[in-house]
Amino acid sequence: MARAVVNVPAKVKRGEIIEVKTLIQHVMETGFRRTQLGEVIPRDIIRQFVCTYNGAEIFRAELHPAVSANPLLAFSTVATESGTIAFTWTGDKGFSVTESAKITVV
Amino acid sequence: MTSRRDFLIAASGAAGGIGLAPASRHAQATPAAMQEAIRKVTGGAPVRNGRVKLDVPPLIDNGNAVPLSVAVESPMTPSDFVKAIHVVTERNPLPNVLSVYLGPRSGRARFATRVRLADTQTVLAIAQFSDGSFWSDSVHVVVTLSACLEEGLI
Amino acid sequence: MSVRRGGWPLPALAMACVLLGTGWGVPAAQIPAGERRSGYEFMSRETRAMQDDDATNPGMLWVLDGETLWNRKEGAAARACADCHGDARGSMKGVAARHPAWDAATGRPVNLEQRINACRSGRQQAAPLAYESRDLLALTAYVARQSRGMPVDIVIDSRAKPFLDAGRSAFTRRQGQLNLACTQCHDGHWGEKLAGIAIPQAHPTGYPIYRLEWQSLGSLQRRLRNCMIGMRAEPYAYGAPEFVDLELYLMWRARGMALEAPAVRP
Which range of residues forms the domain containing residue A55? Predict the structure, then answer.
């Protein structure tokens, strides 16, 4: 399974804007590279990233081959309540990885 | 990103009688393709320069992993927020880089990532606001490459 | 400004050959200890920021994989690294800073990859891992991470000296179609520009590194192969004793400098 690293502050004050940083291991093969024999290496990328906060979508990204390998996505969200922030990456060849992090809002 | 390199490897193979078909150049985005990609997002609506800050280093160590971030001025309230930010380039093989979708729960209209830039070129970020307006920022970047590479046969 | 593709452009190469071939002298003087600088200092601010933050350093993906492998039972002996070595945060502190280190069993210095594989085959009765395989990179990244911030600590005694000399000889010897020696650029012209990029001093303080060019983590030997290809020399095979001798010399040359694994490099 592809390794993912997510960084969410563990405990924050209600209403604070927090930064979420995510990293996932993926080659993000563009589909434009060729082998030494001239054969195209087919595209194999993460196409979509969705982040939900207690089930509600708070951030979504559509990725194209121009996103680097082992993609980093960092974004903000308002800490509204304690619960779970969930991350899902989906892409070519049935790629699907989910991660989650708990957040405590005081 | 290695199109010219691979083309020459394949071509020299063919010249050496190995009989490899020269690699055909893949489609390369042109400024026109970038305009088309922008039009797909905006539907032809005007895009004004401002309110958006696109951060890409002007001189890049390596085009494979270029840190890129976008920040947009917006209160991010339910009545006035940034719905989406789109990043496009003029000289990558495909014009679109990524699109992110935000909302009032974002708190701040900003994100960061790392992108591939195939060549020295202009990168453009377009923000789509809840009131239907579009604002943008662009940066011209120079892409360099290290010496001593793996496929350093050219 | 044009983009450089595929290594050095030919006019620059030819110029380098002419200048370095006509009596600019090999070996170049060693860099004085106080003037030694990590490759980190030759990178852009943005690339440095990528390395500095564990949340954005792609090398951490391998470090975490390594942690999982460290605790996983492997081989016919069904033994995990942790079963003998416990918590790596304690037991592996300083290990990467000391390697390549003398190995009594083989009668020569071995690098971290070889040490890990010796444990795998000897203690875990598991198949050794190939260079640049995901698992070996993960384990070396995890082990090396435990030495981050510590000074490189290579000790050369009378047994190791012949291997150090062999490594020094490889570093100072002209080779390849360009008839260049590593020392000419990395001791003699560091800081100057080659194909628009500053030449670093070639200290392996960050290995295994996430090289932006590879878009992946890789070992010192992979990087050295890139160097040799860049010089148009036949690269040694992975695991070749010539490589380990050269790794020994490079780490010894960097002794006292702080380890940065896993580093990010262009």
Answer: 4-105
Q: Which domains does chain B have, with CATH numbers?
A: 27-143 (2.60.40.2470)
Q: Work out the angle between the directed axes of helices C161-172 and C241-253 (0-180°, nearest 10).
A: 90
Class of domain C59-145: mainly alpha
H or E element in which residue C236 lies? none
The alpha-carbon gap from C173 to the nearest alpha carbon of chain B, in Å, equals: 18
Tens of pLDDT, residue by residue over B68-83, are 999 999 999 999 999 9
Q: Which two tokens stand for residue B148?
A: 């001593």
Smallest CA–CA distance from A35 into chain B, residue: B6
- H-only helix segments in chain C: 10-21, 45-52, 59-70, 81-85, 88-91, 95-98, 112-122, 134-145, 161-172, 182-186, 220-230, 241-253
**Whether residue C227 lies in the annotated active site:** yes
Of the candidates C199, C162, C198, the one whose C-alpha atom is nearest the C-alpha of residue C184 is C199
ipTM: 0.95
Residue C176 tokens, joined: 């390849």
User: d(Cα A83, Cα B58) in Å, to the nearest integer?
Assistant: 40
Q: C1: buried, middle or exposed (CB in 10 Å: 19+, 13-18, 0-12)? A: exposed
CATH class of segment(s) C31-53+153-265: mainly alpha
Q: Decide if C65 touches A, using CB distance below 8 A.
A: yes
Which of the four pLDDT bands, split at 50, 70 and 90, describes residue C3?
very low
Vertex B136: Cα angle to B48 and A68 (nearest 5)? 160
What b-and-e string marks burial along B10-47, b requiring 16 or more CB atoms within 10 Å of the CB? beebeeeeeebeebeebeebeeebbeebbeebbeeeeb
Question: Rounded distance, CA C256 to CA C153, Å?
Answer: 6
- Out of A17, A60, A64, the one facing B97 most closely (by C-beta) is A64
Structure tokens at C224: 């050295």
Q: What is the pLDDT of residue C195?
A: 76
Task: State how many domains chain A has.
Answer: 1
A60-72 pLDDT, tens digit each: 999 999 999 999 9
For CATH 1.10.760.10, list the domain ranges present in chain C.
31-53+153-265, 59-145
